[in-house]
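Re: that backbone. Tokens:
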């Protein structure tokens, strides 16, 4: 919708709700913003060109040193011992999975709502994902939803800080300690967010990040694994990045001790990541501020519930903005509501049922029901079922959940107000009388 027709739409929606004080308030103090900031160009750190030029001017000789420099700086920013740079988070988690000393058929409890990239590595290593349900009223799992999934074959928990909202990690770590499980964090959507003051990615035993161009610390692509565990770090580097080469045999040459991968970050990507590191925390602080403001404004609209921000999320590093609609209050579905938001000017507004991998990755149900390897291992293994019924609460949540990627490093208060105006207008248009 063109900005001028959107104004008309907002006006007519205001007329529809004449008498409701909220919309009257918002329209009389109408936002001076007319459109939202475009996704690109992303805001890059001031030293980006300088660092990329260092790699180019060296005739690529500085490739490895630039990667090592980024790894060192990222580890320092997080306060962890090791950072291993990769070409993305999917490869980071694949490199991590390749380094885990588990057996095929071992189980990993995974967040119910996430991207395919979270599970690709564990599937390829023939580990079995078991999806925990979402905690009530939110996108993330919790210690309570993880516990019933744990069996004698469970080896790890893979927590995704979905939308950038940190999972409630202290109870998860207590449970993991009790059951002797490894805890991995997928921090793709929430770099430099904080849980009770502690940084995302330092809360479990190991974590993976994304520096995809659309994410909150954007490079052209990129990712990494971070950990304080020396042995795990060494294995991720050797098996995930260095093609399984552990050294040279005299009079022979290199020996591939493991069937390893070559998930290396490029020097130019590392240069961009290094420059982004200089601005990311400031940008995240701004995102946090904008998201909280947006949530406060949107929460004023009857029937709309922003994704709750618990007190433990001391810095919310949002990649998405999201809210749920109360189905009984509107004549339309969440999909139709989202479509109208997009038409009214919120780019990318939509529902996200595909974020339920238990249903979205059809090969899981097929392989499990056909008892294809690793579902055949060992013979005493239990039955596995995948589908929307695997995580009923998460599935239910997704029916009314609307979200869009927010480029709120560029948002101003006026953009937050514009979000409120548009959501209020769409809500008014569709409200049951
Ligand atoms: C939660 C989550 N995990 C993993 C990935 C994969 O990241 P990448 O694109 O860097 O491979 C994504 C990408 O959107 C994601 O959102």
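Recovered sequence:
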């Amino acid at each position: 919708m063109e900005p001028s027709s959107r104004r008309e739409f907002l006006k007519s929606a205001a007329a529809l709700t004449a008498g409701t004080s909220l919309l009257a308030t918002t329209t009389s103090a109408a936002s001076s913003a007319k459109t939202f900031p475009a996704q690109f160009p992303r805001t890059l750190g001031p030293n980006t060109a300088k660092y990329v030029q260092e790699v180019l001017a060296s005739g690529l000789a500085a490739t490895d040193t630039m990667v090592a420099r980024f790894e060192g700086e990222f580890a320092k920013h997080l306060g962890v011992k090791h950072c291993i740079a990769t070409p993305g988070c999917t490869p980071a988690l694949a490199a991590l999975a390749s380094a885990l000393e588990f057996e095929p058929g071992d189980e990993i409890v995974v967040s119910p709502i996430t991207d395919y990239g979270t599970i690709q590595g564990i599937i390829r290593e023939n580990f079995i994902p078991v999806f925990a349900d979402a905690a009530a009223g939110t996108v993330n799992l919790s210690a309570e939803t993880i516990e019933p999934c744990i069996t004698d074959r469970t080896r790890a928990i893979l927590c995704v800080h979905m939308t950038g909202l940190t999972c409630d990690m202290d109870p998860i770590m207590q449970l993991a300690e009790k059951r002797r499980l490894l805890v991995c964090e997928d921090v793709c959507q929430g770099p430099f967010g904080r849980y009770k003051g502690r940084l995302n990615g330092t809360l479990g035993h190991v974590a993976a990040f994304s520096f995809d161009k659309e994410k909150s610390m954007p490079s052209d692509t990129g990712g990494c694994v971070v950990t304080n565990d020396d042995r795990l770090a060494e294995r991720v580097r050797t098996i995930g990045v260095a093609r399984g080469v552990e050294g040279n045999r005299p009079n022979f040459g290199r020996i591939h001790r493991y069937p390893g991968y070559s998930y290396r970050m490029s020097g130019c990507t590392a240069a961009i990541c290094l420059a982004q590191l200089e601005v990311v925390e400031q940008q995240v602080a701004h995102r946090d501020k904008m998201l909280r403001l947006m949530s406060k404004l949107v929460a004023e609209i009857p029937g709309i519930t922003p994704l709750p921000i618990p007190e433990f999320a001391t810095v919310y590093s949002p990649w998405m903005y999201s809210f749920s609609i109360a189905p009984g209050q509107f004549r339309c579905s969440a999909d139709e509501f989202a479509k109208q938001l997009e038409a009214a000017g919120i780019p990318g507004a939509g529902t996200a049922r595909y974020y339920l991998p238990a249903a979205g990755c059809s090969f899981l149900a097929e392989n499990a029901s056909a008892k294809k390897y690793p579902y055949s291992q060992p013979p005493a293994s239990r039955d596995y079922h995948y589908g929307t019924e695997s995580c009923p609460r998460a599935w239910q949540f997704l029916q009314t959940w609307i979200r869009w990627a927010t480029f709120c490093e560029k948002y101003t208060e006026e953009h937050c107000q514009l979000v409120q105006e548009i959501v209020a207008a769409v809500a008014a248009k569709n409200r049951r009388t």
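The two ends are 26 Å apart (CA to CA). The longest helix spans residues 280-298.
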